What does this fold into?
Amino acid sequence: MIDPAVSGAEWIRTCIDNSLHRLGVDTIDLYYMHSWDYGTPIEESFEALNEAVIAGKVRALGVSNCHPYQLARANDIAAAHGWARFEAIQSHMNLIFREDERELLQLCAEDGISTMPYSALAAGRLSRKPGETSKRLELDTFAKGKYDATAEQDGVIIERVAEMAEKYETSMTAVALAWLLTKVTSPVVGATKPHHLEGPAAAADLVLAADDIAYLEEPYVPHALVGVMAQRR
It folds into this structure.
């Protein structure tokens, strides 16, 4: 828990040192500011992050869960001060939630910022046919809050992922991730069992035809922002 008596900059310094200690390393390759800190001026946060880069504690900086204008403004401020900038962003994107295509992906392409989205399989929804379930689908209330409201319209896309999996003789996971790899640098995927890595591995070699990509994308309709991104704008 953040101590309100501690400045944002000091909190960042403490968190970085604690991360290094827990990991047992001298340098973190990519350090994310996990969500936008509305209570701290970005200049204060960036100065502390830049100190970590100069000290060799961090090689590159990333940010998660922020709006395109925030990312652009932050990197403009970093450039004005000669500080290390955000080199990567971790956002929420998958076949049934594509709002990053509006502005964020174009900004990142133009400015050379890596895109590494989380929830690449929509908390398992893109890896199972409609009607199939799992413990996570049943119990993950946070994911339900993000996806249940649009389940009907998203179901059309999920059915098409299943069709493509049959066509390419692969898993739905591989199809969903292969599509995402046409849009971003590298999706973030999670695994709790060895066989969970089979789909992501297959996705790296799966090349979807342009017509099939269009077929997967065609049913999408605009979605409202959800999760942490819906809290502040």
